[in-house]
């Protein structure tokens, strides 16, 4: 059994996927783990796919994630959740924002949003979070990424205090309070069973 935990964060450009991956990596490092981080964000600024891989443990040799090798998949929207699903290990934890961001082919009418996405993800044991609504409740519509980290943190071994310290040091100073509230709301939603 490997002592390495692999987390995949998947979204589209502008959703804060890279920031979330950076926060997760810093939290793991702060707790003494060896960490590897890698990103794929080719057309991120134009709403393209953004995938961040964070691996942490006692001795992490590579940032590479093979199909079926991710312990956690944190998806910032449902199409990217489905796209990255092959990376998730059987029995892995899937946290999904209940949102669809239509890709360019859908926007120009060349394709349609796949039907039944939520059902497919539910069949894989998805934990659904309305991260956008919780972010607004926290006071910042841009903090859905931190809401998702809060939800995911309920299944990760790092201390809440470490998460809070890293978030406070990583986000813009004017948004610290809103982001800490966003993290708490996401975490509480999952711990109290509000995630479905």
Can I get a quick summary?
This protein has 196 residues and is an alpha/beta fold. It has a single domain (5-191), classed as Pyruvate-ferredoxin oxidoreductase, PFOR, domain III (Pyruvate-ferredoxin Oxidoreductase, domain 3), CATH 3.40.920.10. 39% of the residues lie in helices and 22% in strands.
Structure report:
- The protein has 196 residues and is an alpha/beta fold.
- It has one domain (5-191): Pyruvate-ferredoxin Oxidoreductase, domain 3, CATH 3.40.920.
- Helix content is 39%, strand content 22%.
- The chain has helices at 17-30, 78-84, 104-107, 117-123, 131-138, 144-153, 160-170, 176-191, and strands at residues 5-12, 34-40, 49-57, 70-75, 88-97, 127-129.
- The chain is globular, with a radius of gyration of 16 Å.
């Amino acid at each position: 059994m490997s002592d390495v935990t692999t987390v995949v964060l998947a979204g589209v450009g502008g959703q804060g996927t890279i920031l979330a991956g950076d926060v997760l990596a810093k939290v793991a490092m702060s707790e003494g783990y060896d960490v590897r981080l890698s990103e794929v964000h080719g057309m991120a600024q134009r709403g393209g796919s953004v995938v961040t891989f964070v691996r942490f443990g006692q001795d992490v040799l590579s940032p590479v994630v093979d199909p079926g090798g991710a312990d956690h998949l944190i998806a910032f929207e449902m199409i990217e959740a489905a796209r990255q699903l092959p990376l998730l290990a059987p029995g892995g934890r899937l946290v999904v924002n209940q949102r669809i961001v239509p890709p360019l082919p859908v926007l120009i009418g060349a394709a349609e949003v796949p039907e039944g996405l939520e059902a497919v993800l539910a069949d894989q044991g998805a934990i659904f979070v309305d991260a956008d609504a919780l972010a607004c409740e926290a006071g910042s519509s841009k903090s859905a990424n931190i809401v998702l980290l809060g939800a995911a943190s309920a299944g990760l071994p790092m201390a809440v205090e470490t998460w809070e310290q890293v978030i406070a040091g990583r986000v813009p100073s004017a948004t610290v309070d809103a982001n800490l509230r966003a993290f708490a709301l996401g975490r509480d939603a999952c711990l109290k069973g509000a995630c479905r």
